[in-house]
């Protein structure tokens, strides 16, 4: 009964990258790691070597100072840590078991002074480059983006981050923002909201308030004794080719695992929501989204999940998760989402 009530409490949980099923919370020992890996991911584009209007110092200088202070607060709990820069991509420290002193030496290697002119900001390609690191990691990974949100070259960075999360659903994007413009701030906030697990913080707040910095480190890296930590099972999302609603063979193992979860937890009821990109008429896309939802319903039912535990709904093109102006964004929008309703 208690578990059933807990599922009712998370009825509004929606999964954009696959299943997210939360189970009963349990007390954890003091300073239990929330992640298995983390990647510090500072932006080294030209705009980060310009002076921040409010801070009065070069943004990268302030970023290094902030990261050094954060490093002093990260507990050594056995996770792997890596340091990579983007715009352009540069590996500073390969993933290894986090050691505060060694990581501090790696942070010192971040250039404090670089040229500004002709250094554009390919933020989208930079985010996509994370694939080369994430492919070698296992478990939950925190990616901590440190940026001013400038994006003036290449694909949409939000779509790129969504694509990374769809491929690696155990990734959470956290953001330390040096943005000074509303558009740049919006980009960074959207990245932190992907997957519903990210933490967004203004760099000015973290530099001015030690308590805020401590809280950011805690929110990203660890939990304390007695804090409830929901057990989470995550499966990758199910996406579709253009104008198609058939389940591709590559997604069948994902749905098989989902069916097993549902059969092992018969109290769970779900809504299967179908979505499309914006190509085609609204009426056509509405029907296509309904067929996509029904395809997943039929697959689960064939695997032994009772039909009365599932409902389907189509939203057509009305609820995009990424920019339909790009091929990457449209691919993300051709999807099915699963919502736990009890």
From TrEMBL:
SUPFAM superfamilies: OmpA-like, vWA-like. Keywords: Cell outer membrane, Membrane, Signal. It is found in: Cell outer membrane. Residues 1-29 form the signal peptide. Residues 227-342 form the OmpA-like domain. Gene3D superfamilies: OmpA-like domain, von Willebrand factor, type A domain. This is OmpA-OmpF porin, OOP family.
């Amino acid at each position: 009964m208690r578990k059933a009530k807990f599922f009712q409490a998370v009825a509004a949980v929606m999964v954009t990258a696959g299943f997210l099923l939360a189970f009963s919370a349990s007390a954890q020992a003091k300073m239990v790691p929330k992640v298995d890996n983390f990647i510090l991911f500072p932006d080294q584009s030209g705009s980060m070597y310009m002076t921040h209007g409010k801070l009065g110092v070069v943004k990268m200088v302030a970023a290094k100072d902030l990261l050094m202070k954060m490093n002093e607060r990260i507990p050594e709990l056995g996770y792997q840590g890596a340091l990579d820069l983007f715009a352009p991509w540069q590996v500073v420290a390969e993933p290894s078991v986090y050691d505060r002193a060694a990581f501090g030496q790696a942070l010192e290697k971040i250039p404090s002074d670089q040229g500004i002119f002709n250094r554009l900001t390919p933020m989208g390609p930079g985010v996509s480059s994370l694939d080369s690191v994430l492919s070698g990691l296992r478990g939950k990974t925190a990616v901590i983006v440190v940026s001013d949100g400038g994006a003036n070259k290449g694909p949409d960075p939000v779509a790129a981050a969504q694509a990374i999360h769809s491929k690696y659903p155990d990734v959470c994007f956290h953001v330390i923002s040096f943005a000074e413009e509303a558009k740049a701030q919006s980009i960074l906030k959207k990245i932190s909201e992907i997957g519903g697990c990210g933490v967004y913080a203004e760099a000015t707040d973290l530099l001015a308030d030690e308590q805020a910095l401590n809280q950011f480190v805690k929110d990203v890296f660890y939990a304390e004794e007695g804090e409830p930590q929901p057990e989470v099972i995550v499966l990758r999302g199910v996406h579709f080719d253009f104008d198609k609603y058939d389940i591709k063979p590559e997604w069948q193992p994902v749905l098989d695992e989902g069916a097993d979860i549902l059969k092992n937890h018969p109290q769970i009821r779900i809504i299967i929501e179908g979505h499309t990109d914006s190509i085609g008429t609204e009426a056509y896309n509405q029907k296509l989204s309904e067929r996509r939802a029904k395809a997943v319903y039929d697959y689960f039912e064939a695997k032994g999940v009772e039909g009365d535990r599932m409902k389907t709904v189509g939203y057509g093109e009305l609820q995009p998760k990424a920019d339909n102006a790009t091929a990457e964004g449209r691919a993300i929008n051709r999807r099915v989402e699963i919502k736990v309703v009890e």
